[in-house]
Amino acid sequence: MNGSGEWGAGRGCLVRAAVTALVALLLSGPLDAQQTRAEASNYSNTSSYADVIAFLDALQGRAPGAWVRGTMGTTMQGLALPYLIVSRPLVRTPAEARASGKPIVYLQGNIHGGEVEGKESVQALLRDLILDRGKNALDSIVLIAVPIYNADGNDTWGPQERQRSEQDGPPLVGQRPNGAQLDLNRDYIKNEAPETLASLKMFRTWDPDVFVDLHTTDGSYHGYALTYAPSLHPAAMTDALAPAGPWTRDTMLPELRRRVRERRGFETFDYGNFSGPANGREDVASLSKGGWLTYEHKPRFGTNYFGLRGRVSILTEAYSHDPFERRVKATTAFVGELLSYVGEQGSGVVARARTANFARGLTTPVPLRARMTTAPFTAPVLVEPLIPMGDTLRHEAGVRRGFKRSHTFVAVPMPVADRFETTLSRLLPEAWILDSSMTPIVERLRVHGVEVRQLTRAWTGRGEAFTLDSIVTSARPFQGHSEVRLEGQWSEQRLTLARGTWVVSGRQALALVAAIMLEPQSDDGLTTWNFFDARLTVGGAHPVRRALEPIAAAR
User: Fold this and answer.
1) Alpha-carbon distance 325 to 321, whole Å?
2) DSSP state, 428?
3) Domain map of the chain by residue range?
4) Residue closest to 11 by CA, chosen among 80, 19, 372, 85
5) What whole-number distance in Å separates Cα of residue 124 and Cα of residue 271?
6) What is the pLDDT of residues 454-467, one digit of tens each?
7) pTM of the entire predicted model
């Protein structure tokens, strides 16, 4: 075993050295602001972190003073994460952005290092918009662009066949997680990665009206160059709580679908994957029974989370089985139309995003748990049947082994499940109560921008506590945690709170975020992620209590 272990270690070093040499060869040569690395290589390469920085440097040289550039934070491996603020006229501060009255759009690429289209599209869009002297979206919006969010993952190079097996190029891409092997698109509630902390700081500071997160699929064989989704959390889709959510789903995204088809020539649709035995790969007949299903509603995902802030939130997923060039161009087309549409609808976007009234949660129940809809609608979905390759040893890039793409598409009527229905909800309290020892929880809330105050004097009033009947802990670790689910009962009681007790108002702007994080029965809160484990016992009370009448003595 020792011998084979040494050989394995040596072989690993050789492989890494070979990959490093290949990266250096493929990514060699200067870049200018005219072309991204993808464009300069005829889409045979994707940008390294150094390429992105060089591109931004060159663009800054071509258009000095046209934009503000900053660093939002550093990665696990110490790389500085760039962001750009672009508008006409230029704004330099959050206060100036707000005073402009324009929608603030936060555009993020490369949250998963191997999903490279967003990174390339953001660079190209920045260049095209900044160097365009004619009227464009920058006259109507304030754009915050983060081209390379997962810089460590991006530069952990490996063969595409290993890093992204169902993706059609480029030959070398990064890895999905960050430098600490955390999936950044599962970290928005627990916020353990430095990249997430940096992102949440940007949200707190700039308070964007629109969030766009750019991805690439790795699933079913369908007929869409790109699929999309709004926030899927039902709290973000409750019109009385967050009117931007239903408008995004029912008005904005259908209009973008029409524009991208008619103006850019790309078909798009609601994000999903085929259900059923064949998973949509070759058995068209089975699909009409299985249907088209979206992904989870939980706010560990960035776009689901951002909807809880009462804002427009959109996920895009380029079609991984398409060639790299087409994926980049489809993403660029969709985002270009999105930015133009937000600019056209500016006052309406701002009104919906900035007038959300979460105090209505005191009379409108807030969804805490959900399941996929039990009443999907029926619609034709474009399917790409695969062609068996027989005994040939050839393997077509981006396609599962033994098959090749047909490049023909069949519209198959099927159930489409693109949303979730609430299974558990509660009215917001006047406040959530945390004892004075729970400062680490308070700090985690404040990272999101949730307001937390302390009592300056003792208080007594009406409240309630949650008694635990059961604690169910997942046997399978996920992202370094064993997820927890609680069952139990709320009971009203007289609360006596000491000076120094922490109070989280249920009437604040981020009340939905606070509810999902603090409620004991939330299906993706701090309880889920083990932050209360030491305080949980069957028969005991959950450490977070609820005040049912106003608490005035807090600072």
Assistant:
1) 11
2) P
3) 31-370, 428-547
4) 19
5) 24
6) 999 999 999 999 99
7) 0.92
